[in-house]
Amino acid sequence: MSFSDFSKPVIYQLSCRLTTFCQRRGLKPLAILNGVTLWLGWAGLTWLAFLVSLLFIEIGEKNDVSVLDGLLGGFIVGLAQWQVLRVHLSGVRCWIMVSTLSWGGLALFPIGAVGWITPSTSDLVSRMLQGAFYGGYVGLVLGLAQWWMIRRQVALAWRWVPLNSGIWSVAIACGWLFGGELRAASGLFVSDVIGLVVAWGAIAALSGLGIVSLLYPSLDSNL
Amino acid sequence: MRIDLSSARSLLSSLRQLTIRWLSRWVQRLSTSRRSLESRISKRNRLVVIAGLIGVLILFSYWDNRPREQTVSLRSAQLISSTQPRSDRTPAEIRGVWITNVASGVLFSPWGIPRAMHQLAYMHFNTVYPVVWNRGKSFYHSATLKKITGQAMAPLLALTHPTEDPLQEMVRLGHRHDLRVMPWFEYGFMVPLNAAIAQQHPDWLTCRRNGSRQLQSGLLGTDEASELDSESVGELGSKPASKGVLSRLLSSGAPTQLGWLNPLHPSVQGLLLGLVEEVVSQYDVDGIQFDDHFSWPVEFGYDPYTVSLYQAEHQGQSPPRNPADKDWIRWRADKLSHFMHVLHARVTARCPTCLLSLSPNPAKFAYRFYLQDWRTWVKQGWVDELVIQVYRDDLAQFEWELSKGPLQEARDRIPVSIGILTGTWRRPIPFEQIRQQVESSRDRHFSGISFFYWDTLWSYFTPEAPQQRRRNFEQLMSDVSPDTSPDISPDLS
Q1: CB distance B246–A185 less than 8 Å?
Q2: Using CB atoms within 10 A of its CB, is residue B353 exposed (0-12), middle (13-18) or buried (19+)?
Q3: What is the pLDDT of residues B368-388, one digit of tens each?
Q4: Which residues of chain A lie closer than 8 angstroms to B428, CB-CB?
Q5: pTM attached to this predicted model
């Protein structure tokens, strides 16, 4: 029995169920496929880009991450996101530049490039509150910059700003909390790095859902 | 369940079409972009682009350790005069660090060694002890070991260093940064029982009275030992396994069963001498180092070879049943000392400028539990530098160790520096403790300090953020006041 003999009926069954689901909800299968592709690509590549950035950027506390680090991190993440977006959206050539400059700019100011920094406190409540505030701030700045990019092509693009801010706020708070718990248990700074990896995973997944809902609103309303 | 077959089929076909379209688009794009690029970029421009890319790569590789080579060189020039013979080139303050392969990626990542050498020089270190012998494997191309086990180097290391021998790279880069490179034979006589050498030559291993070749769990579990060399103890598997999942994960690569090569066996001695000779004659090293594993755990010595040797020297009497018997300890310790003498003579013959450094535990413990009579070795002039392992968390205990007689006795003869634990993955150590111990050693005018180990100096595996830790070390290493200069009386006669 070949692999295709086995896989064919499975794929067939899956596609049948998907088709039925689409029919019930009044959705086009191709739109679902596009949405899923966008989400998978966005979430996967954003997270991967963060992991790649760790080869060049050393995570540290507030002042440890320089403007150059911010620019580099922004470039890597922007490049990954642009790679996914350009298939679904035209005129996003400047996405990389916007991401690079936004992160560079964030690193210039006192709060810093939150995506690559960890809080100095070990108190879990403070970590959560700081994470929520700083994450919200970063999400807002990035959201504004990215909204400016897509405002002409995407209807109701303004929604991206509060959505992004909320996602960053929740994800960074959770990541810093998780990192703090782990650090208390292990006593090692690497725990905070793991916390940020988790946070970026959440950011990638949730913002992926957000971008799908913006670019494919029919999916969002019917699902 | 009702299934609409026609819709399913259409979905399948659209999926197929989409994939084909996507693939063909990519192929088309690749070919057109290549054609257009080829037409646009001349050969010369291509070279410029390649050179630019290489430049960017080089820039990235030196990203976080922008050198102050001039400062370092000037500083090192003050410490070491190149006109002096190497044996006299002990820096004003020894600032060493051990580089190991266990729980460390430095030897295995392509940028690991250059980065480490660069950062250490920048931080005013002047000595490195890179591992060359661990777990029955060598960390350089060893013809001696290849003859015995068929493997010239640890396989993973051979894979990650296809072009240059890692020790060669370490020596080349170390000397470029004015660092003394003293290869460290970390495992000494210790060997995992599943290592090729132990499997192929079980007769080379010594054993306990009950015939077991395995190092007894709890051997070092005395009060003195419990705090003493927790790193060695951890390696030896004498400590009860940590409970945490993370701890279990981190120690997953460690050998579970350890044995001991018989220090008296001629083939074992030949192996160690062969390894040492290779290193000192084929590499431009500044010396070599052995540590507490160049020893003989007190429980061992009941193997047929040792027993027959003992009987031959004691009118047919068998060794005492008690491994801690004073005379029995003395006899074995003397045999080990004799081999140390041979080793020193061989090093001196092969490389007159090479130093023989030893990093043992405090004297009393080293003798009673490891049969390592290093006081005699120092007195006889078989050791050129001593780096005593004082891995204590409690400052009072640490200082008490520094005040012990044998240490004072040794420092009258040779440079004695203090080995300070900067942490392990399982036992992170805050910088404050390190600072106190360094200052305490300096206050007592020892010849320097050496840190165990590279990966816990300033990495993610420390309690503080790496950059914070680097700032602290930078300050600590440049903070030497004249009144704390080491008190070395190089009476080597």
Answers
A1: yes
A2: middle
A3: 999 999 999 999 999 999 999
A4: 186-188
A5: 0.77
